[in-house]
Amino acid sequence: MSNLAEILEDWPLWGISQKPIETSQVALLNGGLTNISYHLTLDSGDYILRVNAANTLALGIDRERELAIHQLMAKANITSPIRYISDDHSYLIRDYIAGEVLSESISDAADLPVSVLSYMVEQLKNLHQQPINIELPKINISDIAESYWQILAANNPQDDMLKMKPLMQVAMREPPAGEFCICHMDAVLANWLYTDTGLQLLDWEYAGLAHPLWDLAGLWQGIKEKSSASEDKLLALEETIITLYGVKNQIAWRRANVQMEYLASLWYRAQS
Asked: For a 10 Å CB count at each end of the chain, is N or C smaller?
């Protein structure tokens, strides 16, 4: 189900409104690269209606896993709770969090104050320290990438990039050294929200049992993408981030960066 009018007819199931929802109470939100989100302004409060992309399965997204992790993180006050999710997982409703998306509030990410970087890193460390009381399979970078490779092959079987697949898939399969934990797996600046109570992480659809340095590398890559700073300044910023997190294994850090760059490049190419 992806038609907004049809979705709004489900309002009695949601438990957040005593009457049908008017179109004047629904506002489209910009910024989503995969899903479409709306802001619902109701008598009972404000909510986000997220309509999931039709290519969810092709992208390898597990909505059941997303729901379980999202609700677990909501209990830990790391994100807002999901109020309703449709039986077919085509859309969900969560509490609206008032704030400003970090990627839209800065012109150059290299100018982020150390206090903000420190807060973000602490949020990731807090996430990575959460107890795991649900059954989760370990994330494998090559398994995720396989979904993107299949999209590329379907879109353009003659793409020269496909010749690189066998070698790249083998090279990217081994994770960095260290223990796995619950990770967000998409900690780019567009998924951080400034709120009255601090920064919150949004969009948990790629979350799972993964290596914590993948989250840190995702954050670092998001910063690099939104910066025109000199190489020296970026190197100093990278050192600040890994020092704040307490990264000791430089080889593991480099491997995590390469793997997340690999996933990001494939994801963007598959989406385009």
From this structure: C
